[in-house]
Amino acid sequence: MHPGESKMRTNRKTARKAAAPVAPRKKKNAFMNRDKEGHGNKIWIDPDALSVECAICFTPFEAEVFMCKNGHAACAKCCVRINRKCWCCGKPIGDMRCRPLENVLAEMNTHCRFSKYGCTEVVKYIDKSRHEEACPRAPSGCPVDGCTYRGLLLYKHLLDEHSDAVVFVANNLPATTTTLLSLHKSAPFRVLVLERATDAGEGEGSVFLLLNGGGVLSGRSLSLVRLGAGDVEFGYKMEVRGSEPGVLSLERTAPRVRELEGFEAKMFLFVPDASWAPTDRVSVSIRIG
């Protein structure tokens, strides 16, 4: 074979190899999940994908997504918050729905962000926020100042690490039995643990916070909240006695919260400044259940 002919064949092989289509590399956290036959059956998303979050509040889009004429998207709440003026280009926003994105979101599935704490739920992306608000596997942070604990065993953690900072309340007692404690005006809350809660396992209990809030003129606002998971509702009755004659009382159902940050009590007992004088303390009796 002539040396030139051999060189031409080599060049042809190299050209064919270069022209051959290259299969695209699979991306990490691919959007399409394939079944055994290779057909797409579920649409998944990377929970960290910013393209499906509102660019203003950075929370996942829900069923309704709005856009301006230039295609900048925002959730309904943010459209109101920015006075229906696009944060990016200044065009009106809030009248035009982004239907294609809404259709994609409606078919997307994802895992609960508390999967590392044991939640195995697969939820629609547009229902993600609602699920996580009520997820029974969501961890709770320790309310004691300086403590970094965050997990599912808050009751046990408080008993093991902060027993001197909590008030114990026995459960299933007669209705006339109450727990009495002293509350200082500057204390933002007191931690209460209720033993043998009806919705917990053997030896477990529930954690409550007696909140001593500001935000009111000439006094303080007292309320009770429950920390952590659980579907059972707990009613409570609170009575406050201070330096002024008479008794202030409140009887409600304790709302359940994950974290104190951003929480504002809708119902509370107003305790005027005169009741705290001269020791800056009041006596609080509480009955839970």
From TrEMBL:
Single GO molecular function: zinc ion binding
Occurrences of domain SIAH-type (ranges): 107-163
SUPFAM superfamilies: TRAF domain-like (SSF49599)
Keywords carried by this UniProt record: Metal-binding, Zinc, Zinc-finger
Chain residue ranges for the region called Disordered: 1-30
PANTHER family, per the entry: E3 UBIQUITIN-PROTEIN LIGASE SINA-LIKE 10 (PTHR46632:SF16), E3 UBIQUITIN-PROTEIN LIGASE SINA-LIKE 4 (PTHR46632)
Role description: E3 ubiquitin-protein ligase that mediates ubiquitination and subsequent proteasomal degradation of target proteins. E3 ubiquitin ligases accept ubiquitin from an E2 ubiquitin-conjugating enzyme in the form of a thioester and then directly transfers the ubiquitin to targeted substrates. It probably triggers the ubiquitin-mediated degradation of different substrates.
Protein name: SIAH-type domain-containing protein
Organism the protein comes from: Urochloa decumbens
Lineage, uppermost ranks: Eukaryota, Viridiplantae, Streptophyta, Embryophyta, Tracheophyta
